[in-house]
């Protein structure tokens, strides 16, 4: 017991044994702490490889809520609401499931499949099209907020070009992490044959660009024969029903996870980071106070500067939130 | 004494400026993970250089002090980048 106390004092309190500086504040200890935090990250990333599933989301995100919030933001900007289109939701669901099946997080799949291929495959003929992606948000409001903060995503949400919207929320395994992906597709159906179609992924520069004439082969212009008349659009203006929208939320992760979800990498990292930084800050303050009171001369960096820098990192840790948009 | 304090304040102003800009940038660009990572790397590197300049001006720049600043910056960098890339 006495040994434990001795070790604790040695680690946390400046005295002769630690050269009048808490041992935990010595550079070798700080490097060791940083290494342990890195090791934690490696451990969290290695869980899926050994069959332990980890949680990348904690969400209940109804697609209907995403549509509501999107139209709310449009109304605030003086724009007309987007009309729900079930074909777009089917395309969105296909895109989300394609990402999970092929383990990628991007507008364009590793095999070169463009976002617009999913519109075409679902049977949606568009004049303009757009795609916003989000993953690992805990609620719909946070995802919309993130999109609105990003100029390119915001432009999709507030674009007057789009008339219709489809949303899918897909849950499953992305790179070993149980993830919730939100796919938000925008479209403006073709009104007349022969019109040039234009497509925008949220991260792309919003200037008219060529679109594919078929799902996988991009060319400059849709020929009249390839453009369906509006009456041929499959169920273009369906009123969403709760049951149907629920079906757009697909979940594959839980059924594939016999061990169940055990840990959230973000929450774990955040908690450990906060704990580490607060502990170091606390010991620095005690250390500086003792050294000042005892008037101990020592060669050291500026404690005030260290406190300011780590205080900044603490603020950053507190501001951090889960969720990525694309 | 006053001269010493004013000299310290003059030295700490740039550091406070760097750190405030970092926190502000991190907050404003919270939707852009890559840019947030750049901000944290820039803040950590700036912090080390601030430490080197400060101690050099005080004529007390020695290897243990340099290592101390690098260790603190490394810890901050690891924490910041972990939070960004795990999200």
Strand content of chain A: 5-15%
Q: Give the % helix of chain B.
A: over 70%
The beta-strand count of chain A equals 8
Measured by residues with Cβ under 8 Å of the partner chain's Cβ, the largest interface is: A-B, 48 and 42 residues
Query: What's the N-to-C terminus distance of chain A?
Result: 54 Å
Structural class of chain B: mainly alpha
Q: What is the radius of gyration of chain A?
A: 26 Å
Count of separate structural domains of chain B: 1
Low-pLDDT ranges of chain B: none
**What is the tally of helical segments of chain B?**
3
How many strands, which pairing sense, and closed or not: the largest β-sheet of chain A? 8 strands, mixed
- Rg over CA atoms of chain B: 15 Å
Along the chain, the helix and strand elements of chain A come as: HHEHEHHEHHEEEHEHHE
**Amount of helix of chain A:** 40-55%
* E-strand count of chain B: 0
Biggest sheet character of chain B: none
Task: Identify the overall geometry of chain B.
Answer: flat
Mean pLDDT of chain B: 90
